[in-house]
Amino acid sequence: MELLRPVDYRKLREEIERLKREKNAVILAHYYQRPEVQDVADFVGDSLDLARKAKEVDAEIIVFCGVHFMGETAKLLNPEKKVLMPEPKAGCAMADTATAEAVLRLKEKHPDAWVVSYVNTTAEVKAVSDVCCTSANAAGIIEKVPSKEVIFVPDKGLAYFISKKVKDKRIVPFEGFCPDHYLFTGRMLERLKERHPGAPVGVHPETPPEVQDAADFVGSTSQLLRWATDPALGADEVVIITEIGLKYQMERRNPSRRYVFPTPEEGTGYLFCPQMKSITLEKVYETLREEKNELTLPEGLVERARRPIELMLEWS
């Protein structure tokens, strides 16, 4: 099939569905993906949901619509399957802040501490970690860690969230952060509250402490989705501080409510991940058709990096 401009998305979706059947393939997509990519996915979720699903899928090919560390996680859990990335250059600035060498140096200073790595890390960092976590299960995972001191890599926003939830552990934070979430300021949130008085506020734990402290609810993307769309919340509109892609699923689940995200019209600018949005429906189609952009990892690294992810899933 030859792609023309403008793109016929209906035809493109039909072709992708045909290829999935022929090749025994599944498409996994994160909530921050473009709406048309979410629509063609067999499963849409946050990092924890996607890690679980990647281990469960009965398919020969996994097309992973997300940033690079997410595809790596799918490969670590399914080393025998072909994992394809529609945009292999889609990276994560936060994940890139942490290296295995930097984590080991921090471990030398805190030899009795367990290393807990956010799933938003490279396979090399996971390989020198004791257990992984996501924003959805971070507090629960760290409560199970046997050491009193915990090195948390790499996100200092999530480290702050954990320190408030788990009082009996000393959290040693790495100094990484998500440039999209962490650059949203308390003043920006004040501006949104002034424009939408009385609207409850939900924020992602990758935001700065001042933003988390001013919120009514702090949670992962899946937790924000459930909270914001719950009819029991009893609000006509809700302010949500995370990447704009989540708005699509909120509007699908509960279209009777208005979801206010940071935008230029709101006087804040977008909270927008260009790496996630670099994946297009055309790239999904081309990747599946040609079975290109396969993600590969060294066998020895797979064995070492898989253990902390499997322990996370066991503890979740």
Description:
- Helix content is 46%, strand content 15%.
- The protein is an alpha/beta fold and 316 residues long.
- The chain is built from 17 helices and twelve strands.
- The termini are far apart.
- The protein has three domains: 9-91 and 276-297, 3-Layer(aba) Sandwich (Rossmann fold); 94-177 and 304-315, Rossmann fold; 185-270, Rossmann fold (3-Layer(aba) Sandwich), CATH 3.40.50.
DSSP helix fraction: 40-55%
Shape: globular
What fold name stands as the CATH topology of the largest domain? Rossmann fold
Bin the strand percentage.
Answer: 5-15%
Unreliable residue runs: none
- Biggest sheet: strands side by side, in what order? 2-1-3-4
Q: How far apart lie the N and C ends? A: 43 Å
Largest sheet: 4 strands, parallel
CATH class of the largest domain: Alpha Beta
Task: Write a concise synopsis of the structure shown.
With 316 residues, the chain is α/β, with parallel strands linked by helices. It is built from 17 helices and 12 strands.
Chart the SSEs and their pairings.
Layout: H1 9-23, E1 25-30, H2 35-40, E2 43-45, H3 47-56, E3 61-65, H4 68-77, E4 82-84, H5 93-96, H6 100-109, E5 114-118, H7 123-127, E6 131-133, H8 138-144, E7 149-153, H9 156-165, E8 170-173, H10 179-182, H11 186-195, E9 201-203, H12 209-213, E10 217-218, H13 221-229, E11 237-241, H14 246-253, E12 258-260, H15 274-277, H16 281-290, H17 299-315
Helix pairs in contact: 1-16, 3-4, 4-17, 13-14
